[in-house]
Amino acid sequence: MLDDFTDADQPTRRQTKDGPRWGRRILLVVASFVALALVAAAGFFVFLNQKVSGNISQEELLPKAAPSATLADGSTVAIPQKGVGQNYLIVGADTRPGDVGRSDVIVLAHVPEDKSAVHLIHFPRDLYVAIPGRGKDKINAAYAYGGSPLLVQTMQNLLGVKIDHVAKTDFEGFQKMTDAVGGVRVYAEEASDEGSFKVRQGWNEFNGEEALLFVRERYTLSEGDISRGKRQQAFIKALMLKTLSRETLTNPVTLTKFIDAATDNLVVDQNLDVGTMRGEAIGLRNLRGSDVVFITAPFTGFGTAPDGGSIEIVDEASMAELGKALRTDTMETYADVTVTP
User: Fold this and answer.
1) Cα–Cα distance between 220 and 272 in angstroms, integer?
2) CA 90 – CA 208 distance, rounded (Å)
3) Pairing mode of beta strands 310-314, 127-131
4) Eight-state DSSP code of residue 130
5) Which CATH number among 3.40.190.10, 3.30.1490.190, 3.40.630.190, 3.40.50.300 corresponds to the domain 61-333?
6) 305 with 327: CB under 8 angstroms?
7) Is the CB of residue 283 less than 8 Å from the CB of residue 115?
8) For 8, 173, 178, 306, which has the most beta carbons within 10 A of its beta carbon?
9) Cα 279 → chain centroid
């Protein structure tokens, strides 16, 4: 009886010993999968880092740092160097035949120190401003005369701020980025009809080709280049929010396609490295639609330059207010802010 009891009891003792052993094996398997996932994730980000580094070109796009700026009224202001957010100049060129080298998009993106918002300020290409060493001309001419460094100098004097970084791309890049994220939903302030391509007032779903047509059009719009600038801002906002969405950031295939499209043919200044770009993107990951604010650089109306060209006349008082808000990182107080859906 004792032997029978002992034999009957053996499986129970083995089960008692084997339970923890199987638990340890399961933990080891799970740990192995976690380790493999971490290795894969690390490998993925190394891959992305290599892709970005291979695609992006760096050029001397920034002038030497200026301690002060001479404003339109002749006064001099100190240019803050840190602690007031970051200012990114985005320059876009239309690469259609006959348009090569033109700076058709001039947008200053201000990211406050706390990264709670992004202010996108569109500077119409015909804005009539003082260009260092060239007198007064359209702001677009600064780029034609001296490339990005002269455009940066022009804007620093116009606003009294430091331009921290510059990024140059072309319109074809917009098309590729849009397709990479599966299209974008863009709000149009006014409808337009360009034959086979129609835009309705309100929300529109665009693929890459449609988005390209959307940001290029100006002749059928009520305010020409001003209206086109508003469309470009609306598109940039839509693309930014789609890129920072969970569906994009958590999909390795989509993320890889977008990063490849965004960095192909992208040229940045000599001080903007991949680590800085990645850190800024991570800092902005919680942005909502209402946190992206659009502004058109203030002007009082239209006029004619001495050479007969049409120009936009700077509203010097409002431009001074804009510059002060940028210098002090208080853009939320800027009185002329206009927000689009």
Assistant:
1) 38
2) 20
3) parallel
4) E
5) 3.40.630.190
6) no
7) yes
8) 178
9) 13
pTM (two decimals): 0.75
CB-based contact 341:187 (threshold 8 Å): yes
Helix, strand counts (H, E) of the chain: 9, 17
Cβ-based neighbours of 219, under 8 Å, separated by 6 or more: none
Closest listed residue to residue 122, CA positions, set 282, 288, 340, 341: 340
**DSSP label at 138?**
E
| Extended strands (E) in the chain | 57-59, 68-70, 76-78, 86-93, 103-111, 118-122, 127-131, 135-138, 165-170, 184-188, 192-194, 197-199, 202-206, 267-269, 292-296, 299-304, 310-314
Tell the burial category of 136 from Cβ atoms under 10 Å away from its Cβ (0-12, 13-18, 19+). middle
CA distance 246 to 227: 31
pLDDT one-digit tens code per residue, 100-157: 455 678 999 999 999 999 998 999 999 999 999 999 999 999 998 999 999 999 999 9
